Structure to design on (565 residues):
């Protein structure tokens, strides 16, 4: 490892031979591992974990949210994706919202029923199993572990209990009450308190037995429409019944012999690739040292440039033309990188809408060499806080990401998908090195606009500084966000970053928040990584490790763990 790396990693990486899972909840990881041992593959296990996380962490995810999937076929070396994001109600046009008195300066509350978009997660779960699964287990068998967990109950984990209570309080502060299915005697469950969700168990069983029609045309669909319309929304059964996932071709970029794969728009995977392309123009990153003032300064400036582009041009590709080839051209990133001065922060980079979010990211690699990188989200905690009757989940508020500016690329429209923050990732070697790309890792970091920043930070931790997956997640992170109150970019530095670094960044003109400690560290996201082999370790050769060893880490900022066999 690089001798300049001094942050003390909190635990060892998980190492195993046959299959590996990593998620933000141990009970969900256990259910995913069980699916692998029963003959399922990475896609089956990922969906099993998605459903289990909906049970154990409903303040982040559930069937009322969206999902995205990246799948690496170990036999063919092919990578495909599923965009499981839902669309706005067809009646929800800008004219309609303006008729209700809403404007760009005075949009609906983020928790308003008007911000509920069609839940895409259940369809994405079904499609992932159908398209990429082993077909040795039925959808009902894949979802059975989560259904049983919801029915029997489970003790709520510490970090989850904290966020559960915080989001319940946020909803109450906004004049809303979370549905009783997700509370105990009107309160959020405490850490260690056993929570049962028989309503969600029923929803999962119905989905397993009858597939997508059970959710989008059945009892759940009617309950969704009822609760939205009772609270001023305009979603219809036709909006739900017309939903479909989209199978997409991933986008990618090379960095020093590896290729990072992300999903195309409306996902913000483009932002991670733009950021990596800009940073490629600073070959001295390793030499200046991990989390040094020079390293963080370059990262901050690159993030600012990245989001000025992404938020300007990223939206639903069915409604707008996005110049992907131009943006991902290396000459463009070189031109953008030239704007960065090492001595001083840029005076101004125009931002777009940047809001907080809660999400779950998880990944699986199986014994056949398949990998599934998966992310599932309600957007902001419990999303809208609306809970369809007897369904056991809350509805997302992803529509809060829409712009109400008429000419904006992400302007609200009927049947449109918003700019979407959730992004799973895969890493392979460069395609030029072999007939088919060889899998190196499945990775991701949740947390709204932290996600592309987190992807690149943990990737550089491994590639530039030789950290193993667990160390790469343990290391202190940086989160760059736009502060609308002060009209400034804010550089959040996690505990573990040196005080002198914070002071030097301030001298260069950055507004710095240091140190970020305790539960506030959740803003830096919660990541998971599984690698195939220890390619990030420059001190070993393939001859030293002839077996296909899987290495994995799980973020210390969450409750989760990696497990393998």
């Amino acid at each position: 490892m690089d001798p300049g790396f001094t942050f003390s990693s909190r635990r060892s990486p998980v190492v195993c031979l046959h299959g590996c899972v990593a998620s933000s909840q141990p009970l969900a990881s256990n259910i995913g591992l069980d699916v692998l041992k029963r003959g399922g593959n990475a896609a089956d296990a990922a969906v099993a974990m998605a459903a289990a996380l909906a049970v154990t962490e409903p303040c982040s995810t559930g069937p009322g949210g969206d999902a995205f999937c990246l799948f690496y076929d170990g036999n063919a070396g092919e990578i495909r994706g599923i965009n499981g994001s839902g669309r706005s109600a067809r009646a929800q046009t800008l004219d309609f919202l303006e008729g209700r008195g809403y404007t760009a300066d005075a949009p609906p509350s983020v928790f308003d029923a008007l911000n509920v978009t069609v839940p895409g997660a259940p369809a994405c779960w079904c499609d992932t199993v159908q398209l990429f699964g082993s077909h040795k287990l039925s959808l009902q068998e894949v979802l059975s572990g989560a259904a049983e967990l919801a029915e029997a109950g489970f003790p709520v984990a510490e970090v989850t209990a904290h966020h559960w209570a915080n989001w319940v309080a946020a909803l109450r502060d906004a004049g809303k009450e979370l549905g009783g299915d997700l509370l105990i005697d009107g309160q959020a469950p405490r850490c260690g308190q056993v929570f049962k969700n028989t309503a969600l168990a029923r929803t999962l069983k119905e989905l397993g037995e009858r597939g997508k029609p059970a959710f989008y045309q059945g009892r759940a669909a009617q309950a969704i429409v009822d609760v939205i319309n009772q609270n001023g929304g305009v979603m219809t059964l036709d909006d739900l019944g017309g939903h479909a996932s989209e199978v997409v071709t991933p986008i990618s970029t090379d960095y020093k012999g590896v290729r990072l794969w992300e999903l195309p728009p409306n996902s913000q995977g483009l932002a991670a690739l733009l950021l990596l392309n800009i940073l490629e123009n600073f070959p001295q990153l390793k030499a200046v040292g991990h989390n040094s003032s020079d390293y963080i300064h370059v990262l901050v400036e690159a993030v600012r440039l990245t989001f000025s582009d992404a938020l300007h041009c990223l939206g639903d590709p069915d409604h707008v033309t996005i110049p992907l080839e131009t943006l991902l051209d290396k000459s463009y990133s070189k031109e953008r990188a030239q704007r960065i001065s090492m001595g001083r922060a840029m005076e101004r980079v125009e931002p777009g809408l940047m809001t907080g979010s809660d999400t779950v990211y998880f990944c699986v690699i199986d014994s056949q060499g398949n990998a599934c990188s998966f992310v599932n989200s309600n957007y902001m905690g419990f999303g809208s806080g609306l809970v369809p009757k007897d369904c056991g989940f809350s509805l997302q508020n992803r529509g809060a990401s829409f712009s109400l500016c008429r000419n904006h690329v992400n302007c609200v429209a009927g049947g449109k998908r918003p700019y979407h923050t959730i992004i799973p990732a895969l890493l392979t070697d460069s395609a030029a090195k072999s007939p088919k790309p060889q899998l190196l890792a499945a990775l991701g970091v949740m947390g709204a606009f932290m996600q592309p920043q987190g992807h690149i930070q943990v990737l550089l931790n491994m590639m530039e500084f030789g950290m193993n997956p667990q160390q790469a997640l343990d290391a202190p992170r940086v989160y760059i966000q736009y502060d609308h109150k002060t009209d400034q970019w804010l550089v959040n530095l996690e505990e573990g970053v040196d005080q002198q670094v914070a002071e030097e960044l301030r001298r260069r003109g950055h507004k710095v928040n240091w140190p970020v400690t305790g539960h506030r560290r959740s803003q830096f996201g919660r990541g998971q990584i599984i690698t195939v082999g220890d390619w990030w370790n420059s001190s070993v050769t393939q001859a030293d490790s002839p077996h296909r060893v899987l290495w994995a880490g799980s973020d210390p900022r969450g409750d989760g763990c990696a497990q393998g066999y």
Remarks:
- Residues 293 and 504 are 6 Å apart (CA to CA).
